Amino acid sequence: MTSILIIDDEVEVGNFLSHLFMSKGYNVTVVNSGKEFNEIDFSHQPFHAAMIDLKLPDANGLVLLKHLKRRQPHCKVIIMTGYSTIKTAVEAMKLGASDYIEKPFDDIDLLEAQVDDLLISNVTSNEQRILDLAINVGLIVGQNETMRQLIQTAYKVAGKNVNVLIEGETGTGKEVLARFIHQASQRSYESFIGVNCGALSESLLESELFGHEKGAFTGATQMRKGLFEIASKGTLFLDEIAEASTSIQVKLLRVLETREFMRLGGERIFRTNTRLLAATNEDLQEAVQQKKFREDLFYRLNVVHLQIPPLRERKEDIPLLMEHFLKRYPGIEITFSDDAVKTMQSYEWPGNIRELSNCITRIVTLADSGHVKITADHLPFTGQRSVTSKKLTASSRSETLGEGMDEHIEKWMDEALCFYSQKEDIDLEEVLAQVKQLESQLGKALILQTLEATHGNRKEAAKRLQISTRKLRYLLNEKVNTE
Ligand SMILES: Nc1ncnc2c1ncn2[C@@H]1O[C@H](COP(=O)(O)OP(=O)(O)OP(=O)(O)O)[C@@H](O)[C@H]1O
Ligand SMILES: [Mg+2]
Q: PANTHER family, alphabetically (predicted)?
């Protein structure tokens, strides 16, 4: 028989839940204090589920949760909380609670459903669902314990309508995690819209978020809906939130408090039901201390705090991530020697997973077709350089570019990849045309530089550049005699 433990100091709540679950045929035990909880004989009384009130006069719900989980690790726990203690309820989920429910209960069906779901769910099915969702958004879960727990917590809070603040260094996967949360929520069929608070000017960001009426400012020739309106049923991802100006911060706070907003230049009040996820690679708490970020807004955004560890603190996941990124190039067979993997794991990865992803892209770009084995020699992680620019051939022969130049190209390539990784649509033809233009500009510039050194002597310049005079003239766009 299913046994449920209820821990609440309010006798009526205990009675109500007791009747509710007994009518479903469950065996219910109710205790009203920490003292009564301590009197339970856990070694002889196994519980399938427990509902714990966070605030008891003589005990802290979190302490009881820890105690219960230690004695009966398989017992599933739902935390009962008032709005003011949601943050603590999230803490409880990090400590092993499966879910929380807000008091007073205004939807009994929901409460019953939550408990029933909990009783039928099992660890394996939950883990599988997490993995499926993660694959869906391109998130590798890996083996790192901190990361696994973080994703578990993200999964547990995904279904709740609470704001989440995601912190982590650049490239650690804040946006991927935000997409995971959206995907794991009931809003997954609605839109997920991201906006970078650092990339837009204050007025543009304001109009982007709240929209504007026709004629609101010069150039506002048409009414435009803002993201709070468009993503009202979905998820709004505020990236680089620390960059939001003071005035935007005030406006955000107002929407978060009232769920209401007006379009710029308008008077009509709109309601929004957007779920807000925010991200930053700065320490937002520190920004609050330095008075750069509003404390009240910080608390509103930071109901759930998810801190993504840098890649250097989860090196065990590097091989899996490498494999994942290599799968993007199905026609190419690249393997890494054990030494190469170790070298990859001992590098600090300041640009985190994005840098790792770029590094793999570059290795693939430089590799010839056929099977290529990467050895540690190919990976001189020196200074800012992350991977060799030696051309990787099937036999791993190396051909170096002009000395020093390879480093510049490598850096440029890194920057270009980084730039394009933030764009959703890339016009590759356009990119390649720009690279071609760069090629001809660089050629011309080098010829002019050499001509200056040879005082205009074309023959000598061509010799120094190891090209024919004909080619030199061609590259300078001079008419070439067709003799
Ligand atoms: N766990 C992961 N599994 C697979 N790929 C990942 C993972 N985390 C991040 N990535 C990849 O790394 C790159 C950077 O991720 P993302 O854009 O989410 O980082 P970020 O923290 O938002 O970075 P920034 O602070 O620079 O905006 C992306 O290409 C993303 O697909
Ligand atoms: Mg990002």
A: TRANSCRIPTIONAL REGULATORY PROTEIN (PTHR32071), TRANSCRIPTIONAL REGULATORY PROTEIN FLGR (PTHR32071:SF21)
* Residue 301 counted as domain residue: yes
Most confident option among 174-183, 372-381, 422-431: 174-183
Atom number in ligand 1 closest to CA 353: 12
Residues paired with 264 in a beta bridge: 212
What's the domain count of the chain? 4
Taking 3-state DSSP, the helix, strand and coil percentages for the chain, each rounded to the nearest 5, stand at 50, 15, 35
Residues 133 and 44 in one domain: no
Q: How many CB atoms lie within 10 A of CB 226?
A: 22
Q: Which two tokens stand for residue 406?
A: 């390879």
In a domain, 480, yes or no: no
**pLDDT tens-digit profile of 48-85?**
999 999 889 999 999 999 999 999 999 999 999 876 67
Which distant-in-sequence residues (6+ apart) come within 8 Å of 352 by Cβ? 168, 169, 170, 171, 172, 173, 310, 311
- Strand, coil or helix: 295: helix
Q: 480: which DSSP letter?
A: P
Tokens of 92: 């409880």
CA 358 to ligand 2 centroid distance, Å: 15
- Pair 214, 187: CB distance under 8 Å: no
Residues 324-356 pLDDT 10s = 999 888 778 888 999 999 999 999 999 999 999
Q: Which residues contact 337 (CB under 8 A, 6 or more apart)?
A: 373, 374, 375, 376
- Return the amino acid letter for 23: S
